[in-house]
Design a protein that fits this description.
With 233 residues, the chain is mostly helical. It has helices spanning 2-9, 12-28, 37-110, 117-123, 136-144, 153-176, 196-228; strands at 129-130, 177-180, 184-187. It is rod-shaped. The two termini are 66 Å apart. The model is unreliable at 90-95 (pLDDT under 50).
């Protein structure tokens, strides 16, 4: 009802209807016009009928427009609900991407190229002797990441290659090393091996190969992580 009254208040046809009433009623009260009052009445009814028809037509048209806008609004609300659901599904993906970034950073810090195991392996002359603490980053890396996985498949593949290379080198140190000079370790000497110098040389070559594989896998992981955006520059 209030909506209809607001419509009448803003309708030109309603203003015409009200104006006709205000004009024709006084005319009926003038004695000189009584002989033609029926003509005035017909004109008043015609004007009123036209105004009412215009009012109803305009109201129906406006109501149809309101219904159309309501339907469009409902469609837009449904789109918004769809977008909200999609954003809700995207948020876990963003969280997973954030986890990939954190894990990538942690790995390059554990196997830092600036100090520790990686620089030592790069500048080594051979792997015939080492200090236990030089292998600490290797043990830390293997222990901390034994259940790690990446959402990004390319980064995960590079990580698994790095992890296997680290395991391989760690196992080589454990299998081929022996204590020497207190806390130091060395490659088991040839005179303590059944195969002598041949076995010693082969063991040394395997260790150097495993070290090179680790260095290559470490560089490969960092390259892939940079390319895939899990390791910001």
């Amino acid at each position: 009802m209030n909506r209809f009254l607001d419509f009448l208040n803003n309708s030109l046809a309603a203003a015409v209807l009200a104006g006709s009433v205000l004009v024709f009623l006084p005319l009926h009260l003038i004695p000189a016009l009584h002989p033609i009052s029926w003509i005035l009445g017909v004109l008043q009814v015609a004007v009123a009928a036209l105004a009412v028809w215009l009012i109803l037509r305009r109201y129906q048209r406006d109501q149809a427009r309101i219904d159309q806008l309501g339907a469009e609004l409902g469609a837009e609300r449904e789109k918004m609900r769809t977008i909200t659901r999609e954003l809700g599904e995207f948020r876990p993906l963003a969280d997973e991407a954030s986890q990939d970034v954190q894990a990538s950073r942690r790995i390059v810090e554990q196997l830092s190229s600036a100090e520790g195991l990686i620089p030592w392996l790069r500048v080594r002359t051979d792997l015939t002797s080492w200090a236990p603490e030089q292998l600490d980053p290797l043990e830390e890396f293997l222990h901390a990441n034994r259940q790690l996985s990446f959402e990004d498949s390319a980064v995960h593949t590079a990580f698994m290659e790095l992890y296997r290379a680290a395991q391989q080198l760690r196992d080589w140190f454990s299998l081929e090393g022996s204590r020497h000079g207190g806390d130091g370790w060395e490659l088991l000497p040839a005179d303590q091996r059944e195969g002598g110098w041949r076995e010693f040389t082969e063991a040394k070559a395997r260790g150097e190969e495993f070290a090179d594989t680790l260095l290559s896998a470490r560089a490969g992981f960092e390259r892939v992580a940079l390319e895939r955006g899990t390791l910001p520059v």
